[in-house]
Amino acid sequence: MTDAVGMRSGQLAAAAGVNPQTLRYYERRGLLPEPRRTAGGHRLYPPQAVTLLHVIKAAQRLGFTLEEVAELLQARGHRRHAAGLSERARAKLAEVEARIADLTVIADTLRTALAAGCDDLITCAGEPRCPLPLP
Amino acid sequence: MTDAVGMRSGQLAAAAGVNPQTLRYYERRGLLPEPRRTAGGHRLYPPQAVTLLHVIKAAQRLGFTLEEVAELLQARGHRRHAAGLSERARAKLAEVEARIADLTVIADTLRTALAAGCDDLITCAGEPRCPLPLP
DNA sequence: TTGCATCCGGTACCTGGGTACAGGCTTACC
DNA sequence: GGTAAGCCTGTACCCAGGTACCGGATGCAA
Fold first, then answer.
1. Of the candidates A70, B24, B50, B98, which lies 20 to 30 Å from A86 by C-alpha distance?
2. How far is CA A53 from CA A58, A120, B8, B111, B117, in A?
3. Are A104 and B27 in contact (CB under 8 A)?
4. What's the predicted TM-score (pTM) here?
């Protein structure tokens, strides 16, 4: 009966490895539900909030923006609208693969430039065998 | 004698495929040298400015920040201090390769999550075979 | 009950790469 | 010489993901 008191924002922030300000920020962004309050207005979080923050951070590490994470969390329950997690994960995977392809081209160009041994941007751009991706 | 008049900012911007405001922004950031002016104070760019802008855009596409591009351009001539282009390109290549490695891990995780077929973040996080990168 | 840590809301600031707007000047063409 | 397009400076705003600061209120222990 009395063990449902909950955590203060500082405790939750420490437990989740997050700045206390970030909790209020996430609340504004719709990532954290509004928690109960003490009589004086201080937030009281349930223990599951730690897990929720871990999930948010994990999704972020997978490349989802905070807005996308908020949608993923809000889509729970009423799956009438809103794409499911797997559909969004598929889309995100495509994005990540495209980004990898971009970066691979960039890395190849950098290696070519290194092999060409050019050591000055402007003079290099003037020479015909300059590998810089000029338009 | 009279062909050295130069380009107006709007002409240069159009020739380089850039917003006119961006020219002033680059000037403030030290990427474009301050050009000559008409008697009335309007900027007059030399024709090489187009090439310079192309070089800036190319370096940006290779992953250099504007600050790094500014340093690369300023390092020209007095190569006493400041790393040469090749040294910086090597460092940038390492950065890009590291980023590719990160994204590859992310893509693998997304594929694993898709294969596991989990369709809800919170319930998935509660199950032991959840592939989410929880801390 | 006093003292100190913590928390509150609101607002401003940060990075990076620009873009937009306001109010006034210059230039170019007819 | 009139008019319109273009340019000038300065300032504010945009995106994301937070972080910092302020003055005041609360919570908790001695």
1. B98
2. 8, 48, 53, 23, 22
3. no
4. 0.90
Backbone angles phi, psi at A45, to 5 degrees: -95, 145
Total Cβ atoms within 10 A of residue B98: 10
| B36-37 vs A43-44, strand pairing mode | unpaired
Query: What is the distance in angstroms measured between the alpha-carbon CA of A50 and the sugar C1' of D28?
Result: 24
Q: Does A8 touch chain B (CB under 8 A)?
A: no
Per-residue pLDDT of B108-125, as tens digits, reads 999 999 999 888 888 888
With 0-12 / 13-18 / 19 or more C-beta atoms within 10 angstroms meaning exposed / middle / buried, residue B78 is exposed
Contact A51 B125 (CB under 8 A): yes
For A12-15, the CB contacts below 8 A with 24+ separation are: A12/A45, A12/A49, A12/A50, A12/A53, A15/A50
Q: For residues B54 and A135, give the distance between their C-alpha atoms in angstroms, rounded to a whole number.
A: 7
Q: How far is CA A1 from CA A4, A12, A47, B131, in A?
A: 7, 21, 15, 35
- Give long-range contacts, CB 8 A cutoff, 24+ apart: B66-69: B66/B26, B66/B29, B66/B31, B67/B29, B68/B92, B69/B31
Question: Distance between CA A24 and CA A9 in Å, rounded?
Answer: 9
Number of cross-chain residue pairs from A and B with Cβ atoms under 8 Å apart? 140
- Render pLDDT for B27-82 as a digit per residue (tens, 0 to 9): 999 999 999 999 999 999 999 999 999 999 999 999 999 999 999 998 776 655 55
Q: Which residue, B70, B105, B91, B7, is CA-closest to A100?
A: B105
In residues, how long is chain A? 135
Cβ-contact A35, A26 below 8 angstroms: no
